[in-house]
Amino acid sequence: MYQSPRRLCSALLQRDASGLRRLPTPGLRRQSPPPAAAPRPASPRLLVAASAASGAARSCSRTVCSMGNGTSRLYSALAKTLNSSAASQHPEYLVSPDPEHLEPIDPKELLQECRAVLHTRPPRFQRDFVDLRTDCPSSHPPIRVMQWNILAQALGEGKDNFVQCPVEALKWEERKCLILEEILAYQPDILCLQEVDHYFDTFQPLLSRLGYQGTFFPKPWSPCLDVEHNNGPDGCALFFLQNRFKLVNSANIRLTAMTLKTNQVAIAQTLECKESSRQFCIAVTHLKARTGWERFRSAQGCDLLQNLQNITQGAKIPLIVCGDFNAEPTEEVYKHFASSSLNLNSAYKLLSADGQSEPPYTTWKIRTSGECRHTLDYIWYSKHALSVRSALDLLTEEQIGPNRLPSFNYPSDHLSLVCDFSFNEEPDGLL
Ligand SMILES: NC(=O)C1=CN([C@@H]2O[C@H](COP(=O)(O)OP(=O)(O)OC[C@H]3O[C@@H](n4cnc5c(N)ncnc54)[C@H](OP(=O)(O)O)[C@@H]3O)[C@@H](O)[C@H]2O)C=CC1
Ligand SMILES: [Mg+2]
């Protein structure tokens, strides 16, 4: 059982009036009573908006997925136009492309709708934030970053073969509510997601109305497109709260390996904090999976590091890199990141007693090939310029249960990683 050494705090942090998040006074792990199943609302208005859009997008992907290569770019363009054409039939449902005119959603109302849809599911797992502060409190509110491979719907239902997960548990109408509930529970300022194949019809419309600005970069040849009745290509998505950050620049990166273009991608964005005017780079990636591809992932990792060197002008600005690296800490690509001249550290090592070991797992599933328990997901950060103030503890083995993930309790085969960061005092060349 993985022991987290430091004080445990309740997972649900309260935002007080000033927007500051307070870690409740540390104490024993408090098992908050499971949330009462909210009464089913008369009409789940907000979620209906998303599924109305999914009808449009699905019809689009059915048209598109039979086409040949290069469909993901065409899909993205088609999905956008269809979404806008669907908007003409249900103007109140689909978001307008102009973020200035979005009807905001009350996160509490959306959470209530999700919980009503999930009223037959077991209550959410309790996860605690571990307080990692070692220095004086920062004058600015922390920056909360969530890293999560949310499991593409087409892969979960059509390709991943999670043999111990009941098909029922993967139904999109409920699984999407588990994903949204996790996002609403931890209220990240920045979301770094992989295996997003419901961007245009679910996450973009709902998260933009919660105040996020989103970017999606699909895989050039997504395995989702091999699955009948898919929803389009999967890819990486990056969302940030517009009331906290301004976008300075954004780069969609198609990763190379030995100078060849590959099927894996990344997004790197430079953001400026509106409170402190401090700039930083946030990146999300999803490296090639499977054993036997270690050298390939190593080459992709080097390519990503080179891109990030250029974007941060040789680490002149702090950097946070989130991803499903599909690599254990023993792999070459992990060592490249740990020894990079970008001076990166892996945030989740700080949960270990010696601060030097990664968690025992970030993904745990059972496929036809057997049980796979691995540490593949990481949040890297500039270790001189940033401090990790807290990190969300992992699910315990007993919470995960004998059939592992995904399950009726948890929507993905990968756990979400969530960290609160703060800038260190102005580092003169300490990056
Ligand atoms: N790359 C190319 O040049 C071309 C690719 N394609 C298509 O692309 C697909 C390859 O996609 P790509 O994303 O590069 O491949 P990856 O090997 O990176 O894996 C694709 C997905 O499969 C999941 N996965 C990993 N291990 C297994 C497993 N043992 N069983 C089932 N699923 C698993 C991964 O999830 P996780 O990351 O969570 O482990 C990942 O999301 C091919 O299947 C083909 O459909 C088609 C033509 C050309
Ligand atoms: Mg996967």
UniProtKB/TrEMBL annotation:
Residues 20-30 have a biased composition (Low complexity). Keywords: Biological rhythms, Cytoplasm, Hydrolase, Magnesium, Metal-binding. One of its GO terms (biological process) is mRNA stabilization. Its EC number is 3.1.3.108. Pfam families: Exo_endo_phos. Transmembrane segments: none annotated. The keyword Plastid does not apply. Phosphatase which catalyzes the conversion of NADP(+) to NAD(+) and of NADPH to NADH. Shows a small preference for NADPH over NADP(+). Represses translation and promotes degradation of target mRNA molecules. Plays an important role in post-transcriptional regulation of metabolic genes under circadian control. Exerts a rhythmic post-transcriptional control of genes necessary for metabolic functions including nutrient absorption, glucose/insulin sensitivity, lipid metabolism, adipogenesis, inflammation and osteogenesis. This is Nocturnin. It comes from Neovison vison (American mink).
